[in-house]
Structures are given as C-alpha cells and as structure tokens.
Amino acid sequence: MNASASLESLPESLQAAFQELPNLHITETSPRRLKINLQADALPAFLELLKGRAGYIHLSAISCVDWDESNEFELVYHLWSYQVKTLVSAHILIPKKPGRYVSVHDIHTPAAFFERDIHEMFGLYFEGAPDQEPFILTEWYGPPPMLKSFDTEAYANDTWNWQDYQPKWLQEIEANGGSLVTQKEK
Amino acid sequence: MSQKVIPVTAEHNPDTDVACREIDKQERSLLGKVIDRFADHCRARSLFILHYCTGCGAIELPPTITSRFDSERLGIQPMVTPRQADILLITGYLSTKTLKRVILTYEQMQGPKYVIGMGSCTINGGMYWNSYATVKRLQEYLPVDLYIAGCMPRPEAIQQGFLQLIKQIDRGEGNAWQDYYRRYDQYLGNQQALFGPDWHTPTDVIAEAKHYNMLGEHTEGEHTALLEKFASAYVTNAKTNTALQYQE
C-alpha cells in the first residue's frame, strides 16, 4: 500500500473505502482517474464496498486483455460514481488455466452482459453468471477469436477463397504490354 | 405456387370442353422469346431496390435516392419489403451472421430478382480482408449480377452501376437469379460450410426450381440431401406432399 500520498487528494468517502481493504495498489493515471490493482479474490468485496460507501453504482464496462507471455487474463472493471465523479478502474489477473472466475452479476446487473461477451471472445468462464451462451458469434465453431494465439489471417485463408480479379480493362492493358505498376521515366 | 395442371388441350383431359389449338413447340418458343424480350424491356425501366444496410455504404444511399442524384430518373426506387423488391442491394461488408439474414431475405424475393454487391467488402472483404468474421466473396453464397467497386463508391458510381444493370436486364442478360435454382446444391454447400450441416431456410428452393422449370443438373446433390435430413417438418412435409401430387 504505497498510495498514501495520492490518497490524500482523493474525496473522503473514497479514502475511507480504500482504507477498509488491504493490498490495494492505487495509481492516479490522470486527474479523476484511478487505476487500482488488487487480488482477484478481493474484487467482489471491493465492488460491494465502493457501491455501499462511495456511490459507485455504475459499472460501465468490463474489459479483458489476453497476456500471452505470462499466460494470464487481465480483467478491468470500470466503475463510476455520480457523487465522487472519479473513474475507478479495478485491474485483476486471472490465470488462463483453468480460466474461471466468479460473476459479479449479483452486485452489478449489467456485468452479465459483459461477462457473456468476454466468455465468447476469450473463453474465460464466469461461475454464477446467468447466461454464458454465444451472443454475437452464433455461427462460430472455432476457438475464442480474441485470443492472441488465434491467427485471424490464417483462419481467413483457410475458410474463404479469394476473388479472382482479372477485369477486361486490366487484360487489355496487359495485352498491350502495360501493367498496373507505374514505369519510371527514362 | 399452383400445383394444379391446367388442361390446355383435349388430349390432357378428355372431359373438358375446352378445345384449344395445340401450339407448335417452335412457334411457342419464338412467341415466348418475344414476350420475354418485351417483359425485360419494361422491367428494366421500373425497379425497386431493397437495401441491406449493415455496411457503411448505406450512407451513400440517401443522396443517391433523393433529390441530389435522384435515382428515380432511372426508374429505381427504394422498397421496404423483400417480396415487393427486384434488386437486393448489399451495401458493404457482410459478417457470417448477417449473411444468414441476407440469404433468408433473398429467398423471400420473387423472381426475377437481382443482387448488387456494393463496395469492396462484398467483393473480397475490403479492408476487413483478414477478419475471421467477414465474408469474402458474396457470389459463392448468392448469385450476384453486378459488383460496384469502391470504398465507398460515390453516388455517381452507384448510378453508373444501376445503369449497367438496367442495360443488362434490357438485353435479357440479367439472369443470375436462375443460376441459384440451377446450381442450388453448390450455393447451399458453400452456405453449409459456414453455418454448419443443419443449415436450412424456410423456403423450399427445389420446389421453386421445379415450379419455374429451372431444375438443373446441379440443383440437387449431396448438400441438398443433408437438407432433407435437417430441414423442418414444414419443408419436408411440403416436399412429400408435392411428390404425392405429382405421382401418377
């Protein structure tokens, strides 16, 4: 907890909330934007605390980052309070295997939507989420496509044929000894 | 789709009192050609477009249709339902998911129908060429009459494309829609490769092909055999009913 310096400038309700939980790593990325790194198992309590103490009722998004080298998913919960007016982004790391985490649907209802999306795009399973069925990719049989290990270009090459583009005007130009490449002036 | 055989000659139905003159085959085909030619000529001058606007090309359509470029001068107007439209205008990229909807829409349209692929995306995926979700060559899934290249094509280019389609229809060359019936097996095979082997639409395309007299060598095949396995009871029942009625 090396954030005591930046804590002083924060609103009181937020300061009080942060002091309840140990092992928070707080960084002020810019004015009224806080990046908070915490342990994955402390996140539900953290969300409850912010919701109860500082009016953080709005979960605007959950984003997911696939860290290929460390074999981890980073989940970022973006939270907003209409009283404190400071954006809090809570960062947690989840190991890719077994790739499971708890749903925070019971704390913030919109989380169900984001979790479903992340499950579809990254393959991370949320226990207790109301619905983990395919949402956008209903015609998809491949691996989760947003993973770094998924090669989208190779997939496109395997799945689709490319257009055979030989229009008449190009054939005419080539028949007369020309080409699409501009020739240098002599 | 009437399945009743209308008695034309006394030979077909001796009980009827309609005694028509037997039309000579050659004479009939010649007459048919003249009528078709005339119909094509008229049809080319009054076309309704159904625009499928999930791509960014939709933004070029309002000026094309309205007073600035005014495609009504060419006899082309927008239409809101597939059953009352002649042209299916695909304005931009199609993902696997939207392609499904496009096929459903296309099959609802009445023949003769024309498909215009607008923008580079329908041709080869355009700027989404390496995307896992964007369909690359539209003509593998639907018979396309005309592509308008560009990212996005300006209204002038779209008008030019319209004019070209009008010319094609007028000359009796806008027959890509017949290809869907004649080579349905191939189109269906490509669709199944994307959507899975249980893909089927509510439209009984093979029965339609029979009705239009366009049953080709490649209308039925290994892919349409799968259709019978997975298609809904509605479609299969209709099929057996048709088979029963045609049996003599």
UniProtKB/TrEMBL annotation, chain B:
<dbReference type="GO" id="GO:0045271">
    <property type="term" value="C:respiratory chain complex I"/>
</dbReference>
<dbReference type="GO" id="GO:0008137">
    <property type="term" value="F:NADH dehydrogenase (ubiquinone) activity"/>
</dbReference>
<keyword id="KW-0520">NAD</keyword>
<dbReference type="GO" id="GO:0016491">
    <property type="term" value="F:oxidoreductase activity"/>
</dbReference>
<dbReference type="Pfam" id="PF01058">
    <property type="entry name" value="Oxidored_q6"/>
</dbReference>
<dbReference type="GO" id="GO:0046872">
    <property type="term" value="F:metal ion binding"/>
</dbReference>
<keyword id="KW-0830">Ubiquinone</keyword>
<dbReference type="InterPro" id="IPR006138">
    <property type="entry name" value="NADH_UQ_OxRdtase_20Kd_su"/>
</dbReference>
<keyword id="KW-0479">Metal-binding</keyword>
<keyword id="KW-0874">Quinone</keyword>
<dbReference type="GO" id="GO:0009060">
    <property type="term" value="P:aerobic respiration"/>
</dbReference>
<dbReference type="GO" id="GO:0051539">
    <property type="term" value="F:4 iron, 4 sulfur cluster binding"/>
</dbReference>
<dbReference type="InterPro" id="IPR006137">
    <property type="entry name" value="NADH_UbQ_OxRdtase-like_20kDa"/>
</dbReference>
<keyword id="KW-0408">Iron</keyword>
<dbReference type="GO" id="GO:0015990">
    <property type="term" value="P:electron transport coupled proton transport"/>
</dbReference>
<feature type="domain" description="NADH:ubiquinone oxidoreductase-like 20kDa subunit">
    <location>
        <begin position="53"/>
        <end position="164"/>
    </location>
</feature>
<keyword id="KW-0004">4Fe-4S</keyword>
<keyword id="KW-1278">Translocase</keyword>
<keyword id="KW-0560">Oxidoreductase</keyword>
<dbReference type="GO" id="GO:0048038">
    <property type="term" value="F:quinone binding"/>
</dbReference>
<comment type="similarity">
    <text>Belongs to the complex I 20 kDa subunit family.</text>
</comment>
<keyword id="KW-0411">Iron-sulfur</keyword>
<protein>
    <submittedName>
        <fullName>NAD(P)H-quinone oxidoreductase subunit K</fullName>
        <ecNumber>1.6.5.-</ecNumber>
    </submittedName>
</protein>
